[in-house]
Amino acid sequence: MIPEKMKSVVMTSPRAVELHEYAVPELTENGVLIQIKSAAICTIDQRPYAGVTKGFFPRVGGHEGAGVVIATGKNVVNTKVGDHVTVGRIHCGVCENCIKGRGHCLNAPDFGGPGGEKPSIEKPQNLFGSFSQYIVRNENEFFHIPETLNFSHAALAEPLSDVVHSIRRSRLALGETCVIIGAGIMGILHAQVARNIGARVIVSEVDAARRDRVAEFADYVVNPKETDPREFVKSLTGGRGSDVVFFAIAVSSMFEQAYSMLAETGRIMVYSNQHPDDPFGLRLGQIHRSEFEIIGTSGSLDLDFVNAVELMSFGKMNMEKVIHGEYPITKCKEAFDQSIVPGTYRVVIKMDEE
């Protein structure tokens, strides 16, 4: 039975979230009604909440979620009531980028700007994000997961898919050496996926707690304040350098150090979103001579999402290492406050728990 009302976590201003009640979204002919069980608080939600970036309020955020299908539209053929799913990106499937498998849908809704009418408590921005208890999605906007997969883990399929995409774009191969700069959630996920494909993993991280957390997934972990990571990498590779460097911190001033670790023909992956996005200089002659590649990576494709679900389902990922805490929906304020504490990994809201 489809309920008439649902609760949503609404960010009303920086450092303020409230629970509000709304009508459950109407089921469309091509849509699936999903009851969200777990939703994770991503950086996209953390920054406006903390007042670090400009936010448009009130808003319901959330794009990392997982739950159960409770109703399907008449045109839906591959999904049934009771299926467990994780939420993917909203994309049209018909624009040039979608057709060519580039991601970055040209018709995707903009959840970061004001959009059409001014948001209000009655109609907050992104009302049907994963911080609502019920959402409607088309079949190309979610992925099936096994019933044995923990919902809080499955909610992190989206960030894991971004990491899979990053590693796929890097062309990291069996037997290669990679350096990961930063052991936040994305650094730990990069380390795990890289180890799964047979690469040698070196992690550079200044924070002791994060070094301890990533240690089981890395061959070497260094503190760059005590050990010159460039010299360390050179010593392990016979002076050659790293095949791939994953730049997974939002500190653009550290890019030169990351760049200096590359071997000839090496690839550096610019993974982390930079804020502020400060410019810096590069030596073009060195890029020319050494055939370095500087590769941007953002988001993921459907294949990356499928692979992320498979990695978790096969027991190849330790997702507990990147979950800092779980809170019932009635403690959403505490969840958001915890999410912006420095050093915190993902915080999950249990959307069906009071």
List the helices and strands and how they pair.
Elements: E1 5-13, E2 16-23, E3 31-40, H1 43-50, E4 64-72, E5 84-87, H2 96-99, E6 134-138, E7 142-144, H3 151-154, H4 157-170, E8 177-181, H5 185-196, E9 200-204, H6 208-214, E10 220-222, H7 229-236, E11 242-247, H8 255-260, E12 262-270, H9 284-290, E13 293-296, H10 302-313, E14 323-328, H11 332-339, E15 346-350
Notes on the structure:
The model has no long low-confidence stretch (mean pLDDT 92). The protein is globular. Strands 3, 4, 5, 6, 7, 14 and 15 form a seven-stranded mixed beta sheet that branches. A six-stranded parallel beta sheet has the order 10-9-8-11-12-13, sandwiched between helices. The chain has a two-stranded antiparallel ribbon with strand order 1-2. It is α/β, with parallel strands linked by helices and 354 residues long. The protein has eleven helices and 15 strands. The chain has two domains: 5-155 and 318-350, Quinone Oxidoreductase, Chain A, domain 1, CATH 3.90.180; 162-296, NAD(P)-binding Rossmann-like Domain (Rossmann fold, 3-Layer(aba) Sandwich).
